[in-house]
Specification:
The chain has 159 residues and is an alpha+beta fold. It has four helices and seven strands, in the order βααβββαβαββ. The mean pLDDT is 94.
Amino acid sequence: MIIRELQEKDNAAIERVIRECLIEFGGNREGLAWADESLSRLSDYYNREGRAYWVIEQDGEVVGGCGIAPFADSEEVCELQKMYLFPAVRGTGMAARLLDTALTFARLHYKQCYLETLQNMHAANRFYAKHGFESLSAPLAGSEHFACDAWYIKGLEDV
């Protein structure tokens, strides 16, 4: 397995990963990444200053990914976005490597990293807490994913 930057040729594959994972956790609805207009063209969305997206590739197939982009056009807070992995990749250590790659990049551009998710993604919530994300009681102002019900923040000086 390798982690590499998203390429235009990966758009359909990473959209499939995200959609299948959202279906798995009941996230195929408005107010979540499911309805993001950029979901089918993530390479365009992330091909800008202060943004990046990485995929996990296994045997030539994209099996997961995540990105960093500014949160609500902030210059200090980024958002860990669309971090999804197929079940076969979970528990292999690749999520931690992917997160480390994203946070190393984020540290170069931002002071804090924010993320939104669903409470019923229990393993993901434990993973974020284990990696130093602190739970918030409400979303940050400017959140577009109004259907999320779990929010986290992490200072990047300790990355």
